[in-house]
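TA notes, week 10

Several of you asked for a full example with nothing omitted. So below is the full record: C-alpha coordinates for the whole chain, then the designed sequence directly under it. When grading your own attempts, check the secondary structure regions first.
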Protein backbone atom coordinates (compact mmCIF):
# COMPACT_ATOMS: atom_id res chain seq x y z
CA UNK A 1 0.00 0.00 0.00
CA UNK A 2 1.29 3.46 -0.81
CA UNK A 3 1.30 6.55 1.41
CA UNK A 4 -1.54 9.00 0.80
CA UNK A 5 -0.69 11.74 -1.67
CA UNK A 6 0.04 14.99 0.20
CA UNK A 7 -1.81 16.92 -2.50
CA UNK A 8 -4.98 14.94 -1.84
CA UNK A 9 -4.93 15.65 1.91
CA UNK A 10 -7.76 18.08 2.64
CA UNK A 11 -7.67 17.84 6.43
CA UNK A 12 -6.65 21.50 6.92
CA UNK A 13 -9.02 22.93 4.29
CA UNK A 14 -11.86 23.38 6.77
CA UNK A 15 -9.66 25.34 9.19
CA UNK A 16 -8.33 27.57 6.39
CA UNK A 17 -11.86 28.23 5.17
CA UNK A 18 -13.06 29.07 8.67
CA UNK A 19 -10.11 31.44 9.19
CA UNK A 20 -10.95 33.22 5.92
CA UNK A 21 -14.61 33.59 6.95
CA UNK A 22 -13.65 35.03 10.33
CA UNK A 23 -11.37 37.56 8.63
CA UNK A 24 -14.19 38.57 6.28
CA UNK A 25 -16.55 39.01 9.24
CA UNK A 26 -14.03 41.25 11.01
CA UNK A 27 -13.56 43.33 7.86
CA UNK A 28 -17.31 43.72 7.40
CA UNK A 29 -17.76 44.82 11.01
CA UNK A 30 -15.10 47.53 10.83
CA UNK A 31 -16.22 51.12 10.54
CA UNK A 32 -15.34 52.79 7.28
CA UNK A 33 -13.91 56.28 7.54
CA UNK A 34 -13.18 56.72 3.85
CA UNK A 35 -16.76 57.75 3.09
CA UNK A 36 -16.72 60.88 5.27
CA UNK A 37 -17.35 63.76 2.89
CA UNK A 38 -17.41 67.42 3.95
CA UNK A 39 -21.19 67.56 4.40
CA UNK A 40 -21.26 64.39 6.49
CA UNK A 41 -18.35 65.66 8.58
CA UNK A 42 -20.05 68.99 9.25
CA UNK A 43 -23.27 67.30 10.33
CA UNK A 44 -21.46 64.81 12.57
CA UNK A 45 -19.34 67.49 14.24
CA UNK A 46 -22.38 69.73 14.69
CA UNK A 47 -24.18 66.85 16.44
CA UNK A 48 -21.09 66.20 18.59
CA UNK A 49 -20.95 69.87 19.62
CA UNK A 50 -24.67 69.78 20.50
CA UNK A 51 -24.10 66.62 22.58
CA UNK A 52 -21.12 68.15 24.41
CA UNK A 53 -18.64 65.62 22.99
CA UNK A 54 -16.75 68.33 21.08
CA UNK A 55 -15.90 71.81 22.31
CA UNK A 56 -15.01 74.65 19.95
CA UNK A 57 -12.15 76.84 21.19
CA UNK A 58 -12.58 80.00 19.11
CA UNK A 59 -9.40 81.76 20.30
CA UNK A 60 -7.23 78.86 19.11
CA UNK A 61 -9.47 77.95 16.16
CA UNK A 62 -9.59 74.28 17.18
CA UNK A 63 -12.19 71.68 18.05
CA UNK A 64 -11.46 69.56 21.11
CA UNK A 65 -12.72 65.98 21.27
CA UNK A 66 -13.48 65.89 24.99
CA UNK A 67 -13.41 62.12 25.64
CA UNK A 68 -9.92 61.76 24.18
CA UNK A 69 -8.57 65.27 24.76
CA UNK A 70 -7.41 65.53 21.13
CA UNK A 71 -7.60 68.89 19.35
CA UNK A 72 -8.31 69.30 15.63
CA UNK A 73 -8.24 72.26 13.27
CA UNK A 74 -10.18 70.48 10.51
CA UNK A 75 -13.79 69.32 10.76
CA UNK A 76 -13.30 66.34 8.48
CA UNK A 77 -10.23 65.19 10.41
CA UNK A 78 -12.22 65.32 13.65
CA UNK A 79 -15.14 63.42 12.11
CA UNK A 80 -12.87 60.62 10.86
CA UNK A 81 -11.08 60.48 14.22
CA UNK A 82 -14.37 60.27 16.13
CA UNK A 83 -15.65 57.42 13.95
CA UNK A 84 -12.43 55.49 14.49
CA UNK A 85 -12.37 56.30 18.21
CA UNK A 86 -15.97 55.14 18.61
CA UNK A 87 -15.29 51.94 16.68
CA UNK A 88 -12.22 51.22 18.79
CA UNK A 89 -14.12 51.83 21.99
CA UNK A 90 -16.97 49.58 20.85
CA UNK A 91 -14.47 46.81 20.02
CA UNK A 92 -12.87 47.09 23.46
CA UNK A 93 -16.27 46.72 25.14
CA UNK A 94 -16.98 43.47 23.28
Amino acid sequence: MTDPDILDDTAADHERHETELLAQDRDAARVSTADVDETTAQQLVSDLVDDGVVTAVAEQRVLVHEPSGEAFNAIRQLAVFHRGWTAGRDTDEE
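Residues 2 and 8 are 13 Å apart (CA to CA). Use that as a sanity check on your answer.
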